[in-house]
Amino acid sequence: MAKIKIYSTPTCPYCVTLKEFLKERDIAFEDANVAQDAQAREEMIHKSGQMGVPVIDIDGEIIIGFDREKISKILKI
Amino acid sequence: MLYDLIIIGGGPAGVAAGIYAARQNLNTLLIAKSFGGQMTRKSVDIENYPGFEKISGLDLMQKFEKHLRKNKIDIEIDSVSKVEKVSGGFYVSATSGKQFQSKAVIVTSGADPRPLEVPGEKEFIGKGVSYCTACDGPLFGDKEVAVVGGGNSGFEAAISLHSYAKKVYILEFSPQIKADEINQKLAQKYDIEVITNAAIKEIKGKDFVDSVIYQDRKSQKLITLNVQGVFVEIGSQPATSFAKDLVEFSEKDEIKIDPKNNMTKTPGLFAAGDVTDVRWKQIVIAAGEGCKAALSAYEYIINHG
Ligand SMILES: Cc1cc2nc3c(=O)[nH]c(=O)nc-3n(C[C@H](O)[C@H](O)[C@H](O)COP(=O)(O)OP(=O)(O)OC[C@H]3O[C@@H](n4cnc5c(N)ncnc54)[C@H](O)[C@@H]3O)c2cc1C
Q1: Which tens digits make up the pLDDT trace of B17-31?
Q2: What's B106's domain CATH number?
Q3: Is the CB of A66 less than 8 angstroms away from the CB of B34?
Q4: Quick check: A59 and A30 in contact, CB under 8 A?
Q5: Assigned domain for B228 exists
Q6: B138 contacts A11? CB cut-off 8 A
Q7: Which residue in the set B62, B96, B127 is minimally distant from A69, CB to CB?
């Protein structure tokens, strides 16, 4: 199974939509709250080169925003 | 499959329309980029939606979505790219490539944030430039930030930012501030620096924003503010690109509707909420308009279906 990490804030609608999207499909992920976790925030900015949430890391592949098509393609869902 | 009704949008107008359409037993599809719409951009609690004295935009959005999903309705998370009139109804195409067909359509696509249209703005989106304080604000812990726009949205953004950022400015183009007294008082209390007569000229930086340049409209001088975040709160523009040929527009680019039944100039094509020329833009109004549009669409389908 793919290793998935999501960088999100609790107040961002697309973060909620993204997590719901994965949950509905029974896909497990780690969720880092970058509003609180400064280290995760730096990690996200470093990986994605930007400061917008959500960012999703699927086995090292970085996707910025809730890009449904790209995520579906990588996860083959 | 031929649907009775396709609703475009998942904000208050679309959700209310969806609930009413489903309860009228219309075979309905709702297509939305995401749920919630503009209320999820609200950076402080909502305090004027009846039944909820104080609720965050995100919580209210989740309640709307949950209520909608209790009903018998198909839902697609997708972005509509085109609506076409064909005999017997409409074709609705989405950016995923999917196409749907229905007898009637309700457009509730609301409004998108209005951009500043200055150099540097586009390049730095996600790199310091943001249109959603509620989403991105928490990433600016200990940074200096500027909010552009001195209306209520701008003040609310600044007030929410003050709990993360080291320093918050509000830059307003006009000589006067139009935000409510309450918001102005709070801003004062939180040491938010309000600068009026400021015309934004450029957003600068290397990899990320490091400054914003504005012209003081009185002295004509160019002034550089060192900030790492620029939050744009200068209003919104209706999201109508997919329906251009089928509707008439007001001088503000809103879809013109018959206020009695929410019909556009194309029979069977309805619109509701902030995307229309309805006089006031509020959650309770958008929800009411969505309801009106659904009941009108029901009547239309019964008479023409
Ligand atoms: C910062 C801010 C604060 C506010 N505060 C308040 C307040 O305190 N109280 C209040 O009553 N009102 C408030 N408002 C106004 C209120 O949010 C709006 O009036 C209301 O959200 C309008 O609802 P709507 O359904 O018409 O549109 P929107 O809320 O804009 O929803 C539009 C929906 O359409 C979707 N969409 C757009 N384009 C497409 C497409 N091409 N394909 C598919 N889907 C699409 C969007 O994803 C979204 O789901 C505020 C607005 C802002 C911006």
Answers
A1: 999 999 999 999 999
A2: 3.50.50.60
A3: yes
A4: no
A5: yes
A6: yes
A7: B96
B153 ligand 1 Cβ < 6 A:
yes
From ligand 1's centre to the CA of A77, what distance in Å? 30
Number of structural domains found in chain B: 2
- The verdict on B267 touching A (C-beta cutoff 8 Å) is no
- Is pLDDT at A9 greater than 80 in this prediction? yes
| Chain-chain contact of A51 with B128 (C-beta, under 8 angstroms) | yes
Q: What is the CATH number of domain A4-75?
A: 3.40.30.10
Instruction: For residue B55, tell me if it sits in a domain.
Output: yes
Inside any domain, residue B202: yes
Which residues constitute the domain of residue B269? 2-112+236-304
Residue B104 belongs to some domain of the structure: yes
pLDDT at B305: 66
| B246 and B218 assigned to the same domain | no
Check if the beta carbon of residue B32 is closer than 8 Å to that of residue B6.
Answer: no
- Listing DSSP states for B146-190 in one string gives EEE--SHHHHHHHHHHTTT-SEEEEE-SSSS--S-HHHHHHHHHT
Q: A11, B127: Cβ pair inside 8 Å?
A: no
Q: ipTM score of the complex?
A: 0.79
pTM for the whole structure? 0.87
Q: Would an 8 Å CB–CB cutoff place A72 in contact with chain B? A: no
Residues of chain B in contact with residue A10, where contact means CB-CB under 8 angstroms, are 58
Contact between residue B257 and residue B240 where contact means Cβ atoms under 8 Å apart:
no
How far B125 CA lies from chain A's nearest CA (Å)? 8
**Residues B159, B192 within the same domain:** yes
pLDDT for A42-64, tens place per residue? 999 999 999 989 999 999 999 99
Of B45, B59, B74, B136, catalytic: B136
Question: How many CA atoms within 13 Å lie on the side-chain side of A77?
Answer: 15
Contact (CB, 8 A) for B5 and B71: no
B58 close to B38: Cβ distance less than 8 angstroms:
no
Active site residue B291: no
